[in-house]
TrEMBL record:
Pfam families: PIN_12 (PF16289). This is Uncharacterized protein DUF4935. Residues 13-181 form the DUF4935 domain. InterPro entries: DUF4935.
Length: 391
């Protein structure tokens, strides 16, 4: 299926800072498509080291500016009203910010490795070359030769890539810098094109953002046509993402109707007959509190819509509510039961029962593998019942 790939030039995608600005950990959906194409050897995705360091500086500024804007707010009231996990005072918020800034670059590098992105080193260009370029006001320096040092380092990174890869590789430069690199049409300035030609490389293709870059790879290079759905690799979520995904899955399950009897005819409700409860036949799954330390999971491929699937099991606190016979309540463990309405009718009362259970879930992620999309409850067992049966 990938034979035609060998008959064309490989594409190397070099990304400028402005193409990823504000997407600090590269979480937008477009990275999934790039990772898929890269994982099959159809493209090479590259981020200059200069860009990594610019992102670190930008992230620090953005976070500090955000915190500065919150200093006049009453954080405790904000957290209470919006139910946000916000530190109660600015000092605690600053501590959290400091930690995030300190760990940003390692997190970014881990994400780059996860996506299969090549980090291009700072180019070995001598100071005299940079000085001459500035004094001659050659792009990407400005007309006075004062601004453009970091952009020039990025440009020399691109030129180094052209020399190293040679004419067998097509270079795509993703940048929206229409002042220093490109003209208003998004095409490289003529003087920069001449430098590319001097390296012996193929002409550089430009794209103003990653979405347009992926569109070019699809429409011009036709790379998408070489991949079938079941060939798409799944990007493994981080532990932090897994916990957020499982929490969202449990929130979606809460509120479902479940069966508590061994057999309930004509019901498509989830089976909770493994739970020891006095509730008759069916109950509402009122609340689930996942124990994130007990999560066990593994990737199970993709479904027909291309969504990655996770098979998950975990312990959780579970609250059920429904109707119970009054006689059953008086013989029950009252510590695990709350009476919501003790006189629903002559025979029934409305109760809530509390459990610690082991849940098995099939979780569907968004196509990029980073976020929660949907969940199916596969199995539920009461841990207390399991312990009794083992004894």
């Amino acid at each position: 299926m990938l034979v035609s790939m060998l008959q064309r030039k490989r594409v190397a995608v070099v990304i400028d800072s402005n193409a990823v600005w504000d997407d600090w950990l590269l979480e937008r959906d477009v990275w999934t498509r790039l990772a898929i194409l890269s994982g099959h050897g159809l493209i090479e995705v590259c981020l200059p080291e200069v860009v990594v360091q610019e992102l670190a500086r930008g992230y620090k500024r953005a976070l500090n500016n955000l915190v500065a804007g919150l200093e006049k707010l009453k954080l405790t009231k904000l957290a209470s009203l919006l139910e946000l996990n916000v530190p109660p005072n600015i000092a605690d918020l600053n501590d959290s910010t400091t930690e995030k800034i300190a760990t940003y670059v390692p997190r970014l590098r881990a994400r780059l490795a996860e996506l299969g992105v090549t980090t291009l080193p700072v180019p070995a260009v001598d100071q005299q070359t940079m000085l001459t370029r500035a004094l001659e006001a050659r792009k990407p320096f400005d007309a006075e030769g004062k601004n453009g040092y970091r952009d020039s380092l990025i440009w020399y990174t691109v030129l180094s890539m052209c020399k190293d890869r040679g004419p067998s590789t097509k270079i795509m430069f993703v940048t929206d810098n229409t002042k220093d690199f490109c003209d208003t049409k998004g095409e490289l300035h003529e003087s920069l094109l001449e430098e590319v030609v001097a390296t012996g490389s193929s002409p550089i293709v430009t794209a103003r953002n990653l979405r347009l870059a992926v569109q070019y790879l699809k429409d011009v290079e036709h790379l998408d046509t070489e991949l079938e759905l079941d060939e798409f690799p799944v990007v493994t979520p981080s532990r932090e993402q897994i916990e957020a995904i499982i929490t969202a899955a449990c929130e979606q399950i809460a509120g479902q109707r479940v069966t508590t009897a061994e057999q309930v005819e004509y019901s498509d409700a989830s089976d909770f007959s493994g739970f020891h409860t006095i509730i008759e036949d069916e109950a509402d799954l009122q609340d689930i509190q996942p124990d994130l330390d007990t999560i066990e999971w593994e990737l199970a491929g993709r479904d027909l819509d291309g969504r990655p699937m996770l098979e998950v099991s975990l312990d959780a606190g579970v609250t059920l509510d429904g109707m119970a016979f009054k006689a059953d309540y008086y013989g029950a463990d009252v510590d695990s039961v709350s009476v919501l309405d003790g006189d629903w009718n002559d025979h029934y009362m409305w109760v809530a029962t509390y459990h610690r259970g082991r849940l098995s879930l099939l979780v569907y992620l968004t196509v990029d593998g980073m976020h929660f999309d949907a969940v199916e409850l596969v199995n539920a067992e009461d841990i207390v019942r399991e312990a009794i049966s083992e004894d």
